[in-house]
Write a structure and sequence with these properties.
With 414 residues, the protein is an alpha+beta fold. Helix content is 34%, strand content 25%. Among the domains are: 3-44 and 102-176 and 290-356, FAD/NAD(P)-binding domain (3-Layer(bba) Sandwich); 179-280, D-Amino Acid Oxidase, Chain A, domain 2, CATH 3.30.9. Strand 1 (2-6), helix 1 (10-21) and strand 2 (26-30) form a beta-alpha-beta unit. Bound molecules: flavin-adenine dinucleotide. Residues 2-168, 288-351 form the FAD-binding domain.
Length: 414
């Protein structure tokens, strides 16, 4: 079976490794960029994604790139604690959670793909068309520096991100991704280690928020590399460009007064080398991902808001699920139907959950119920309610510890 993958992002590269692991050999990845530059800042991979990487035999390569957070804690704008929970191994999963630089993750996955696949990644190939043929095959058309170029395959996997051409070819009237009205500023900074040096924190509410997590162990001087996302509701535009750099100072100013005993947020923002501005956008759920031998995967299928750390994780799980069904079904059509049944309804529900702010709802509830702060969080959001919000989200995202630990493997190797 000949398979082509559109996009060498996290999802496309994970799909290449997963398909290879499932026994396919005629796999080629096509990427629009002329060079894979490893762009971005931090990204979180949840235990269910680490399980898949582990079963692909690449978890050690990936784990070496980042830090496994052991706790996730939510705070108010004033730094009052709302909720805290163990993460990864500390929460009883058989696999850790991992905070990693997206660029380093992408470059490492690229190296693994280059090592394992027969065909090198074809750079400088921008997908511009897909046609279904009478014999059941699919033909992809690419624009390259040397002119247009066509490739025919049994399966085309559209893993070309939030601005997916594969998706736009099937849904030409969809337009730009809808904007939430929130703007995100993402950066990497070096600041004194906070809390236990392995905690991911979120402070604020639905209108303004700061998220931070370590990307490396603290160095001997007690400082550490930290990824942050500052977020605020404000007039702006929903034009989504992952690489738009802006001046840190006005962003730090927006967070003036957000200085806690253990973290000075304006100082952390001001110390960033570079801040990337990005509108918080997602994509509406689709009624269908697969057409003939073509399907969608990762952000091309279900781009979501970043609350809950789903982007990279769900793309990796899509990749493994797709490879499993292609290797075990009788026909391509049956495989793509099973893949879609396994993933699309779950991602549609999760998308709705992230639009309702996912696990971060506790922060909004604390702001609404006790805008001036509180003496005891139990009087504001009872423990049972906080526990339920956290568990509901893990159910929707597919990573309740017991369910994940006991789920059969998606590996199909003998
Ligand atoms: C430059 C960049 C920086 C990012 N930074 C972050 C970050 O800091 N933190 C975070 O959480 N998430 C980041 N993301 C998003 C994150 O990678 C995804 O949400 C998630 O990993 C799902 O991956 P994906 O493979 O579906 O999409 P992506 O990782 O977005 O990959 C899509 C790939 O498809 C390629 N492509 C697009 N159109 C075409 C086409 N027509 N033909 C061929 N190839 C095409 C793109 O160049 C890209 O390599 C970033 C994405 C990009 C592209």
């Amino acid at each position: 079976m000949k398979i082509i993958i559109i996009g060498a992002g996290i999802g496309g590269l994970a799909a290449a490794l997963s398909l290879h692991d499932a026994g396919f050999r005629d796999i080629t990845v096509y990427e629009r960029s002329s060079r894979i530059r490893g762009l971005g800042v931090g990204i979180n991979l949840l235990p269910h994604a680490l399980r898949e990487l582990s079963e692909l035999g690449v978890a050690d390569d990936i784990a070496a790139l980042g830090v496994a957070p052991t706790t996730l804690s939510y705070f108010t704008r004033r730094g009052q604690p709302i909720w805290s929970e163990p993460r990864g191994l500390a929460a009883g999963y058989r696999w850790p959670q991992l905070s990693v630089h997206r660029g380093r993750l992408q470059l490492t996955l690229r190296d693994l793909v280059e090592e394992r696949l027969v065909e090198p990644i074809r750079l400088g190939h921008r997908l511009i068309g897909i046609a279904s043929n009478a014999d059941g095959t699919e033909t992809a058309r690419f624009a390259t520096a040397d002119g247009d170029h066509e490739v025919t395959a049994d399966v085309i996997v559209g893993a070309d991100g939030i601005h997916s051409a594969s998706r736009a070819l099937r849904y030409p009237d969809e337009g730009s991704p809808p904007w939430s009205g929130l703007t995100l500023w993402r950066g990497v900074t070096r600041i004194p280690a906070f809390l236990d040096g392995r905690t991911m924190i979120m402070a604020g509410d639905g209108d303004q928020k700061f998220v931070a997590y370590p990307l490396a162990e603290p160095s001997p001087d007690g400082r550490m590399q930290v990824n942050f996302i500052a977020e605020r509701r404000m007039p702006g535009s929903g034009d989504a460009d992952w690489n738009r750099a802006v001046d840190p100072s006005p962003i730090a100013e927006m967070f003036r007064g957000w200085t806690f005993d253990w973290l000075d947020i304006p100082v952390a923002i001001d110390a960033a080398d570079e801040i990337l501005e990005y509108p918080m956008v997602d994509r509406d759920p689709l009624p269908r991902w697969s057409f003939g031998g073509t399907t969608l995967l990762g952000d091309a299928a279900h781009a979501m808001y970043p609350n809950g750390s789903n982007g990279g994780s769900q793309a990796i799980i899509d990749a493994r699920t797709l490879a499993f069904h292609l290797a075990t079904a009788d026909t391509v059509e049956q495989a793509l139907t099973r893949y879609e049944e396994a993933r699309r309804p779950a991602m549609t529900a999760l998308l709705a959950g992230t639009r309702a702010t996912g696990p971060e709802r506790v922060m909004q509830l604390a702001a609404e119920r006790a805008p001036e702060g509180f003496d005891d969080i139990d009087d504001v959001i009872p423990l049972e309610e906080r526990e339920r919000i956290a568990a509901d989200y893990k159910t929707a995202a597919g990573f309740l510890p017991e369910a994940l630990n006991e789920r059969p493997s998606l590996s199909v190797r003998a």
